[in-house]
User: Fold Endonuclease/exonuclease/phosphatase domain-containing protein from Hibiscus sabdariffa.
Amino acid sequence: MNVGAHWVPGSKILLYFLGSEGGSEVLAQVLFLFRSFLVLVRFVGVMAILAWNVRGLGNKDTNRALRKSIQKFQPDIIFLSETKQKKGFLEKVKTKMKMAHSFYVEPCRITGGLACGIPRGLALWWSNDTQITVLRSGKHFIDAEISIKGESEWFGSFIYGPPYKEEKREFWEMMTQMRDASEECWLVIGDTNVVASQEEKLGGIPFNLNDARVYFDFIDGKGLIELPISSGSFTWLNQRSEEEAILEKLDRALCSVEWSVRFPKAVGLLDVAIGSAHAPVIIYPYGLSKKYKRDFKFESKWLLEEECKSTV
Assistant:
């Protein structure tokens, strides 16, 4: 019996549907209706930051999902990791997404992994209402000074943490030396590629504290706070069958005490993971307006009801 695994971060669970006659068609229709509903929900805030490991921006489904996320969350800043594309292609996509400005860390080879020292490309886009000065960049990060509509500046580090153990220590030690978080207004956002506790992992090899120790040294040494993100416990799925499925929380936002004091109403959300194994992370520094609608929650147990197929 085949098992199809579909993951919706808003439900905090995997949606498993045991294959039966017509079962896959029912599930496909249910998920289509669910995703169509999400497009209609618009999250309203003064400013939004979207960070997403797209795992390749050449995919039509990924481009479509990005466009829908932009329509829904209206981000002023967009950070994309693992773009796997050169600047020329990304500029065309940026224009279609109606973003005004950009900065890139390009992959020097679309295939071949880490052969040339740059993983798979980073992109930072921002609107005309946002002023960004890139201070430094590298194969795993873009560090910038940010001002929204002329307000006082703060620092933002947009990261794609190394997935390989031998590079993790070098990366987090570099981040530790970047600035003094005790005195500066600083936000760190992106794919950390770090699981910080057993609660952030479901399936696969159990959590190992040693794997995250250098990451803890970074956040403890800088006194950073992790911003809570609603609508999901995990941000990544290996997209395999039920028995082999692994879910992890890899994508997150960290901030200094100074940043949290300046933005006490900051809200974090997850969008639905479509076109990538990662879910987009959205941060509203100024919070959401009263027009905010709670995200739709799809319960996997609905698929077990006899009425599900007839209703769809």
DSSP finds seven helices and 18 strands in the chain. The domain at 3-289 is CATH 3.60.10.10 (Deoxyribonuclease I; Chain A). Confidence is low (pLDDT under 50) at residues 1-40, 110-115, 299-304.
